[in-house]
Amino acid sequence: MPDALALYDAMRARADAEYAAWRTPQRPRIDIAIDQSSITNGALRTRAAIEQVVASRNAAVDLGRVHGYGMQWLHPTVQVTFPDGATVMYGPVTPAEAEAIVDEATGRWGAAESLRIGMLTGEREGVPSLRDHPFFALEPRERRLLRNLGLTDPESLEHYIARDGYRATARMLGRHSTQEQVRTVMNDAGLTGRGGANFPTGVKWNFLFGAAGEEHYLVCNADEGDPGAWVNRVVMEGDPHLLIEGMVIGAFGTRSEYGFIYLRDEYPLSIARMEQAIRQAEAAGLLGDDILGTGLNFHLRVIRGAGAYVCGEETGLLSSIQDDRGMPRVKPPFPAQRGVFDKPSNVNNVESYANAPLILMHGSEWYRQYGTERATGTKIFSFSGDIARVGFMEVPFGVPLAKVLDVCGGMVGGKLKAIQSGGPLGSLLPPESLPKLILQGDSFTPWDAIMGGGGIVFCNDQTSVLVLAEMFAAFVEEESCGRCTTCQRGNQRQTEILRRIIDGRGRREDEPNLKLLDRTLQFSNCVHGQFSPKITRNMLQHFHADYEAALRGEDPSLTMPGLYRVVVTAQYDPKLAEAVAICPVDAFRGSAGNRSIDDAACIRCGACIDVAPNAVAKRAKSGVLALN
Amino acid sequence: MPLETESKVRLRALVAEFRPNNGDLLAALHRVQHEFGYLSAEALEVIGDQLGLFPAHVYGAASYYEEFRFDPPAHTNIRWCSGPACRLRNGNGIRDALLASLGIEHMPGKTEDGRVGVILGQCNGACEVAPMVWLEQHETHTIEPIGGMSAARAVRMARALRDGATIEEATHA
């Protein structure tokens, strides 16, 4: 029987050679960052333009692919790797800059100087290290979960292996680790569920290991539905084998022969990269039957979701896998007792699994070097909203949120009004919480808030918190599975009340009624119903003055549709005619010099303000009184 | 045995590899919708046959998910992003401008001639370009993300598509 470590070493030697040739190429190589964000920023057009320049000049460069590095506000980014192994990052690179990039790569150093962000590896005079960019000031010097971004082609198994990938698996199998050792090291490291629930991963694995029967299922929750969170996407698009390896380790530790990755439909590139990586791992003997010749079998499949948020709840997810409506059910029985196809199962988040190879490789002590006593290790976060630098980063637990806002370049367009964490079932935090919050779950607790799965949105004062509350209320109403009357009807009422308030028809009894709904919703079976009033509750707790003002008919942000009107402010502005023409509901009345806007017809879309900001404007409606 | 329609033969071939009790329903529904653009009653029946499920079960499951359609899609769909970063930048105004420009009452919906539709989109984490929409054509399997939207641009885009513009033209409208 061939030894697992010997098999791995042979694989590794081939991978090392291939990777070395990629890292120190014979001629310069231009790598375009291809991920969901960069594609949205036009990376495919940039790539096509660079290809065209290279082809027309028959330039002595190669083209390749990487994943974005985290600085999404600079997308699309491009990296050039020179024969000495130095890698320069550029961005944003539009098709118009293709020539400059090719020039710089082919010897005209300086041609793309203005596009340089920094050195990913190596040195060049006058170009700072990328790691010195303020955006990464809170990251550890050496990334862990994101260690391969920019330094590998995410679609290459060989690159992953050459960067120590599958080494933990080979050692685990080759040195005959016991299943208990694997679970114990996860517990010692303090790894907890990264989806937001924070349950110890090793304990969950213990449940499944000890469950009756031989047919165990290992499930990955990749249904990252919280708007504003794209932590799992980065792992799956940036380093898909890290997730697979984590699941192989989990499968060994829990005696599972079958696995599913339940992946949301909104991540088509994640689906493609995960499916490709699974085929690569199977072909290499790292997944499927008889892994590394040790007799371990683990069969992994991607299940593509179809746009149902509540499938991110683990029992809803399991129902969805087994050909049913993805409706959550009552627990117990817990998945470890009765999961997918009624067999014992374990569900973990993508990032939870992705930590497993690193912990097994380096040990629990190493893992605990970062983070705090109660939250060990590092975590990926995505930051968005009204900030200068939108992107993702990997930081140790315990980092102050105020520092995060600093490295994100601070607020743009207005002052900080609210911090939204944990998605639609999460929280709405006031500005005064900022100096006290650290990125660690229990730091949010005093604010009756949760940190959640890693998506944090900073909102400026140009938006009303009541509008935000209505938006999330509508989301959770729409996504309720409808099983519990409390959740189905309760969320309808919650949305109706909030909608009425922002329409300028708030009532005195709205607050007690929202609180009554909150209490009623606690009787729902799953967290969807139980957590669905949280943001509205936070709004009443932390932004009560805004609620009171809304009842009085005041909204300084001028975003509550019922509390403002759009008026003509300059009759002879040359842009006014354009405003009249753009109005999708023909709400302008009167002739030139005597224009007005029919308030009953106006839908407050803002198109006229977009084209003629000096001729039309929002004005607060006065005299709207709370009905009682 | 009555002769099968051509579409039914095609449907059977499409889902032939899927098996009962194997977690294949979502994959079967996706495959058929990708090919036909929507899930016809006939398709639901064929999928049920293949997976050993009653049509009511197949329809019940499929209708649970936002992404499955039971009518042909509009020639071009504008998928409106409902994420928070987009909402902070007049996302609601963009949605209302799209619907009003096209005379569509509710989302999801489409124009009477079936040329343009507006459907709900979810955040996929490209929030640096907020607010955004995607233009989608089933016929060509095109998905074109468009960031930096505004209500005015939404009106121009919707009007252009309504008047027969291509995705490329609408992008620059």
Task: Explain what you see.
The complex is a heterodimer of chains A (628) and B (173). Chain A is α/β, with parallel strands linked by helices and 628 residues long. Chain A has five domains: 20-130, 3-Layer(aba) Sandwich (Glutaredoxin); 164-366, NADH-ubiquinone oxidoreductase 51kDa subunit (Rossmann fold), CATH 3.40.50; 378-460, Ubiquitin-like (UB roll); 465-552, NADH-ubiquinone oxidoreductase 51kDa subunit, iron-sulphur binding domain (de novo design (two linked rop proteins)), CATH 1.20.1440; 561-620, Alpha-Beta Plaits (2-Layer Sandwich). Chain A contains 23 helices and 19 strands. Mean pLDDT of chain A is 96; it is low at 624-628. Chain B has two domains: 6-62, Arc Repressor Mutant, subunit A (Orthogonal Bundle); 76-171, Glutaredoxin, CATH 3.40.30.10. In chain B, strands 2-3-1-4-5 form a five-stranded mixed beta sheet. In chain B, helix 2 packs antiparallel against helix 3 and helix 3 (41-51) crosses helix 4. The model of chain B has no long low-confidence stretch (mean pLDDT 96). At the A-B interface, helix 2, strand 9, strand 11, strand 15 and helix 16 of A face helix 2, helix 4, helix 5, helix 6 and helix 7 of B.
